[in-house]
Amino acid sequence: MAKLLRVNMTDHTVREDEFPKEWERFGGRGLSAKILRREVPGNCDPMGEFNKLILAPGVLTGTAAPTSGRTSVGGKSPLTNGIKEANAGGQFGQKLRRLGYRAVIVEGRTKDRGTYVLTITSKGPELIRADELRLMRTYACAEQLGKNADKRAAFLMVGPAGELGYGNASVAITDLDNRYPTRHAARGGLGAVMGTKGLKAVIIDDHGTIALKAEENDDYRKKISDFVTTWRGKKNAYAKGTAIVVDMASEWGNLPTRNRRSGSFEGHSKINADAIFATFETRGGGMHNCLAGCIVQCSNTIYNEKKEYVTSALEFETLALLGANCGVDDLDAIAEFDRLCDELGMDTIETGAAIAVAMDGGVLPFGDVAGMRNLFAEMEKGTPLGRIIGSGAAVTGRAFNVERIPVVKGQAVPAWEPRTLRATGITYCTSPMGADHTAGLVFGGTKSWEGLAVKSRESQIYNAVVDSSGFCQFQEPPMEAIAGFYSACLGETISKDDLRNMGWEILQDEWAFNRDAGYTRAADHLPEFMKVEPIPTNKMVFDVPNSELDKVYDLNAK
Amino acid sequence: MAKLLRVNMTDHTVREDEFPKEWERFGGRGLSAKILRREVPGNCDPMGEFNKLILAPGVLTGTAAPTSGRTSVGGKSPLTNGIKEANAGGQFGQKLRRLGYRAVIVEGRTKDRGTYVLTITSKGPELIRADELRLMRTYACAEQLGKNADKRAAFLMVGPAGELGYGNASVAITDLDNRYPTRHAARGGLGAVMGTKGLKAVIIDDHGTIALKAEENDDYRKKISDFVTTWRGKKNAYAKGTAIVVDMASEWGNLPTRNRRSGSFEGHSKINADAIFATFETRGGGMHNCLAGCIVQCSNTIYNEKKEYVTSALEFETLALLGANCGVDDLDAIAEFDRLCDELGMDTIETGAAIAVAMDGGVLPFGDVAGMRNLFAEMEKGTPLGRIIGSGAAVTGRAFNVERIPVVKGQAVPAWEPRTLRATGITYCTSPMGADHTAGLVFGGTKSWEGLAVKSRESQIYNAVVDSSGFCQFQEPPMEAIAGFYSACLGETISKDDLRNMGWEILQDEWAFNRDAGYTRAADHLPEFMKVEPIPTNKMVFDVPNSELDKVYDLNAK
């Protein structure tokens, strides 16, 4: 019998509930939305005792379905004040499922200002006070937790940013080796929800458990081998990681540069995939997978000139936001900042966007690597300046009275430029997640905006399904294939259409939460400067009318 | 023919428009709402070029109606992101009306980052660049402006807080003598709207104009003398100023103390009206009126031990928020902070609330006068810490991860405690102005919450009328009397019921603006701590159900 694990941080108790049968088909993002809709008042204080933090692996997570091990982190976002789901790789979700849990629900808020660690093993869950971990960096925390844990134990944790309540705070999950906290459920400031509740880390040790039932199913195993065969026959777009798109993005006017004053960066070739691959040859590092069973292997490991490990993975979004957008073309500096974001437990997108806004406001010059290094130190120390930057791009922009504040619903716009990619801009405007490319990244839209809302809507539905399954978006699993896995795993026939309906239901749940939170269509817009200030190279502004945005909310609109 | 003066800060032009006939009955707050509804998109960026700042005297302002000279400042608030009106005394409004203007509409946003002064005389309006005034304190600015202006010229201006874009920034108007910038349209951060547009000050010189037509009307003159006779026959509740309520507030659990951990302050007798009156005897100062024709004379003038002028007026809200709420019982220190708020152009409520939140978050101890002095210096310098505090209580609370953040719709709760005065709490929840006692302060509500919504609604309607008339709320003019003045002044019969309908229409305009801004009923609530943390002395929490709040929006509900 599947279980829900409830952790109450107010009275420091843990409890196991039966997993509701009616949610069987929902995992990850979809399950998180179901729980939040039922249990959390939409207009509660995201940092208060009525918000909850949900840790939910996908429907297929824990099985051998390829690259299906992602864990969703959900809650009401301190950045958007709406519902939020962010997911990450690593081994956490697979182990949680093998221990029989469909989700962990962290409730309440500690009154004693203590720091706690939740341990989940086959012997059951336990909440332990661990004040010695307070404000510890994530790498050191993982090392510390590892001292008393089985080698197979994975960790999920917040860094100092989460404990300080920063809007840019992520939730970190350890890598394939269970020791490097490099996978981040990064967006929406959910790390601040976890940190404020007083939960520093979760240790998960599935030692002594057996594989999930689905594994023993011949049909399921066949579906896996067919899927892998098809995948191997295609070109892997992510063989060089997400950095592969840096050049193309710059050429298209899609690479945010100097707080989005431009969409093209003259230093793009210093921070692209070729530059990263050059380090593999001379220093070490290379491509790898972030979780067991991954066939995409998009993740890179970056070494410095001394041939020492620096960070993993250096993604396109990080190269764009902490690089081009801050006017920085120094790959080693960006790798260092990526590591610092991992160490402090921070979203590289929100952090890079906030720093660029501060640069635009004259706090430090664009391209000032030493100044950026100092900002990370200020964030770690919790100085007033550090707290402003850590609060994200919206607060930073307001604090320094900056005109150009690239946020939607309080959350920083990801690299993919909505003035150029207008369908993605429609996603940023309408997604229950705020400006989030993983909610519905759609290429195209440079010629006409007509028909783009439908593309955004369908992409949003698809991504809601993928983010509920446990699959990685980079694997781009066709709906047909996901339906096959679901059918075999759940023991009932689930069609492509069923999945599409489920995706739509998830979006409806999320939009309903946001309505309860106080959101209306009035917030469905990009920042004003994107409507009047064109990208210099392609002269584009975001000019999609509201009548087109409406079509996202209407399943019948063409 | 009445005029509207339009000032475009983008291209630095001024223009006179005919005042729309259909708005004849609306002035001040009501007129500001009409203009904003027609001309400003509800969901625009309050700091952007599409927001407008409205300066609107009341319907009766400029006539000899007693205490009718108030000026409303309106716009979309950077604090609440909704519509905002704040009004102040001083001579500005009377002079603006005598020059034939019903309102000044400041549009656009300067692109050259220049500092501008608008001069309005009988020769017409003129916008002049005056970079030498940038970030100048208000007293020095008034002195500077006075050097080249007629003695009868009044000034309206922002201090450094407005120019730095702070959420606590007020709009200052000079006093009866036209030189001390002590009257503040304080709430909602409207000074930041003015400052960001690039407008530092408005000089108004009505030299050469004649009294308004209403003055020559025998009926009007009789209404005035009758009203004054009635007033003189009553006890003036404000004869000792608003400080008179300090003791009562403390006794009732209504005096916010140490970031509202308590509602009673052990040091209340050191900061009450008697303490203020004692300074009159030994140092000088006393009671006076803030504008010509005032019969209330609630304003005090405070001198220091050296018998030097410090500030005017030291109000109850200031004594509460910068005093008790910060744990300060030092009257001289509070007077000094009041002067600093005037000098920097800041709302004493928002500033005091933000400092108390910072104290609660451990930034400085409660009662730390030297630390508070330093915070004012930080705000003036625009340091990161100063910018956090200047951004108001909501940002301060989030930046320092404080649990107890007393704001509604982003704006600090005034002194009057909504847990004790639950009808006033209903006003804070439902008013289009956010937490604002001048929108509908209702005493009582300590026994049962039933029937309180109707009291709040009727008070909100009444205050919308008063704040549109130009009358001071402290004069408490009966609707009957206001109707008489309107009828005589406008030359058409206006009944008490007409006025009530106008008040309701103003609220409807404002709520409609807020709906366009994205507000729903989901934001109609007090901060969570006020629902669960009782006032220690009277054990009260805010427990009014939504079904009761609904009645504010329904004119027929009982």
Kindly describe this structure.
The structure is a homodimer of 558-residue chains. In chain A, the strands form 4 sheets. Chain A has a 6-stranded mixed beta sheet. Chain A has a 6-stranded mixed beta sheet with strand order 8-7-12-9-10-11. In chain A, α16 crosses α18. The mean pLDDT of chain A is 96. The relative contact order of chain A is 0.13. Chain A has a domain at 3-213: Aldehyde Ferredoxin Oxidoreductase,  A, domain 1, CATH 3.60.9. The first copy, chain A, is 37% helix and 14% strand. The first copy, chain A, is globular, with a radius of gyration of 22 Å. In chain A, a hairpin with a 6-residue loop joins β4 and β5. Chain A has 20 helices and 17 strands. Chain A has 558 residues and is α+β, with helices and mostly antiparallel strands. Chain A has helices at residues 28-39, 92-98, 138-147, 160-163, 190-197, 218-233, 246-252, 273-283, 316-323, 331-344, 348-360, 369-381, 384-390, 393-399, 422-430, 452-469, 479-490, 496-517, 529-532, 546-549, and strands at residues 3-8, 13-18, 53-57, 71-76, 83-88, 101-107, 116-121, 124-129, 154-157, 171-173, 183-185, 199-204, 286-288, 299-303, 309-312, 407-408, 411-412. The two termini of chain A are 43 Å apart. Chain A binds chain B through residues 42-45, 47-50, 78, 164-165, 167, 192, 196, 383-385, 387-388, 391, 395, 398-401, 403, 515-520, 522-523, 525, 527-528, and chain B through 42-45, 47-50, 78, 109, 164-165, 167, 192, 196, 383-385, 387-388, 391, 395, 398-401, 403, 515-520, 522-523, 525, 527-528.
